[in-house]
Amino acid sequence: MADTEKSNENQSNALLAMLRQGWVSVAVWMAVGLLLEGLLGYKAPSYLNDLQRRELFRLAHSHGTLLGVVLIVAALTAQRFGAPPKLAQTSLRIGAVMMPVGFLLAGVWHPEGDPGLAIWLVPPGALLVIFGAVATALSLKSK
Q1: For the segment 51-66, what is each residue's pLDDT rounded down to a tens digit?
Q2: Interhelix angle for 86-108 vs 3-41, to 10°?
Q3: CB within 8 A of 93, min separation 6: which ones?
Q4: CATH classification of 3-141, choosing from 2.40.10, 1.10.10, 3.40.1350, 1.20.120?
């Protein structure tokens, strides 16, 4: 097998993995949203009485769902216009996990008035997503 064929196959597998992660992320975080609706509907005291927890869980749900859609769009864009650098793809994929998981874990246990320590996953996750988006945009410009 020629090196270019192997490289194209590896790139195709990477884009398929990104597409799969995006759809799984949408499904998981939408299910989390449904669970949160259930906690509201059944008036779960541990959820209703803790405003910090409610906010962090909602942030996890919304960021996780949106970043899943971003991964899907990035994979489809790469298939149509050519793949961005591997570092950009990896950054998007890791950041799309770190941000919502950081919000979720920070809401599970937190001291009075402050989010839990897992909130420190959010800023680097955000920077990874921003880097991946900018690198992808710049790779499109050069084509």
Answers
A1: 999 999 999 999 999 9
A2: 20
A3: 17, 18, 21, 71
A4: 1.20.120
